[in-house]
Amino acid sequence: MTDTPAKTPDECETMIEVRVGVDATDRELVALLDRRFGYMRAAARIKPDRGAVRDEVRKAYVIAAAVNDAETRGMPAEVIADIWERLVEGSIEYEFEKWDQIRK
Questions:
Q1: CATH code at 35?
Q2: pTM of the entire structure?
Q3: Distances (CA, A) of 6 to 19, 21, 34, 39, 75
Q4: What is the domain count for the chain?
């Protein structure tokens, strides 16, 4: 890691600049995931029934929305679908854990 500010992808001229940008983006992604998992903690606290944690209709909607957004941006939809499948399943597992912890 470095303290060098990240350039945009189009501004990069060296692999060092690319790596600085990737590292900065990864830190931003982890911060966003921290916020997303915070919403899973909130959902675990709010949902009165453990059976409400898994919602296949919502899961399908979230993945489809991510794929649609990826396609609009010219990103590989299959890759995004795979990432979001794991993200949503991991979020559901996390929410189950938190739901159980809250009610013990």
A1: 1.20.59.10
A2: 0.90
A3: 9, 5, 22, 29, 21
A4: 1
